[in-house]
Design brief:
The protein is an alpha/beta fold and 389 residues long. Helices cover 41% and strands 19% of the residues. Bound molecules: zinc ion (2 copies). One zinc ion (ZN) binds at residues 97, 99, 132, 157.
């Protein structure tokens, strides 16, 4: 089969069976709505599904219970293409980041490629990558060598806009624990050491720090322990922060200033402070122009409207960034509804289970599959992608 007929075979897979399976995947994963590292049902469901479709499946790979790897091989040697599936939800608001659609797109692309893999060399692996919202499943996979020997990775994320070359911010999660001394807040407040004041002063100092950081920096926190009773001077408080920036260097520099804000607050209030890094550092997405161009070409052929670059003022963080630092990776964002919606809201969750959202996902999955096929059969393209990396 020539390249053109292979592309036709991939596309026609979406007009029938593959999109039916994708719909089930999207609906089921949406329903399971499991948070980071607790995606037992989702991971098992997806692993069994791939197995029943003839993929060779490894569950709980690289020591991560809710990960999986589903592989299909071509007729001989060739590139190794990784398609990444996410399936974790957010606490309380469920699939408000649309990872059910990411799972559906990943499964769809892998199943469509199965139709043609026998005619080309190489392999396609659907990676079940848990815990994107917290904990960094992909960082663990990267660190444990899961992507060694792979030539490229592809994933698409639902959004309120469509752009091919999306970028992300590095992040470091920091927990601060302050310790003071309890006392009767009415009778003998002077005997207490107020650990809540330390948290409040930390927020105030960070707010002053904001004036002196570059526009890419984001510092946001919540108070997770603020005291137990209003008439007791709090002796133990805790706050969780995320420090983000466009590069790991800037992020690290600002993170140290944030810790200094807390140290200063501890000194001022007579408390002690301890820090804990509650998860791995997410690295920023490293782009790959030839890969992005190849994907853009397929978006255009499928009639998907897009912009090439993203909006530098509207960036989240993702553990896909860490993958992109070790192999060429493309991570487009795509619009799932006409309304102006924001991620991590109930409205976004609604769009993630809407018919429009699903139909957009089928198109994008087709573009991911076609681009993977391009990588598998177009040697000069693969060479360019590698050279750009
Ligand atoms: Zn997400
Ligand atoms: Zn998210």
């Amino acid at each position: 089969m020539d390249c053109r007929s292979l592309r036709e075979a991939v596309s026609s897979a979406f007009s029938s069976d593959v999109s039916k399976v994708m719909r089930q995947v999207s609906e089921n994963v949406f329903e399971f709505s499991e948070v980071a590292f607790k995606e037992e049902k989702s991971a098992e469901y997806l692993a069994s599904l791939m197995e029943s479709n003839g993929f060779s499946v490894e569950r709980a790979c690289y020591g991560i219970p809710t990960s999986f790897k589903a592989e299909i091989r071509g007729k001989g040697p060739g590139p190794s293409v990784a398609i990444l599936a996410e399936y974790d939800a957010l606490p309380k608001i469920g699939h408000a980041c649309g990872h059910n659609l990411i799972a559906a797109a990943g499964v769809g692309a892998a199943l469509a490629l199965k139709q043609v893999i026998g005619h080309v060399g190489g392999r396609v692996v659907l990676f079940g990558t848990p815990a994107e919202e917290a904990g960094g499943g992909k960082v663990m996979l990267v660190d444990r060598g899961a992507f060694d020997g792979f030539d490229a990775a592809l994933i698409a994320h639902p959004a309120n806009h469509t752009c091919i070359a999306s970028r992300s911010l590095a992040w470091e999660p920091i927990r601060m624990t302050f310790r003071g001394k309890n006392a009767h807040a009415g009778a003998v407040p002077h005997k207490g050491v107020n650990a809540l004041n330390a948290v409040i002063e930390t927020f105030n100092s960070i707010n002053a720090l904001r004036q002196h950081v570059t526009p890419d920096v984001r510092i946001h926190g919540i108070i997770t322990k603020g005291g137990d009773a209003v008439n007791v001077v709090p002796s133990l408080t805790e706050a969780n922060f995320l420090v983000r920036a466009a590069s790991v260097d800037v992020m690290s520099e600002v993170a140290e200033k944030v810790r200094n804000c807390a140290r200063g607050a501890a000194l001022a209030t007579g408390t002690t402070v301890e820090f804990e890094q509650t998860g791995p550092v997410y690295e920023p997405i490293k782009g790959n122009e030839p890969l992005e161009k190849a994907l853009a070409g397929n978006f255009a052929k499928l009639g998907i409207e897009f912009s090439l670059g993203g909006d530098a003022t509207n960036m989240g963080s993702t553990d896909v960034g860490n993958v992109s630092q070790v192999i060429p990776t493309v991570h487009p964002m795509y619009k799932i509804c006409e309304k102006e919606i924001v991620g991590h809201t109930p409205e976004f969750a609604e769009a993630s289970c809407s018919e429009d959202g699903f139909q957009c996902t089928v198109k994008v999955a087709e573009a991911l599959a076609l681009t993977s096929l391009d990588l598998l059969c177009d040697e000069p393209l693969m060479a360019e992608v590698k050279a750009a990396f």
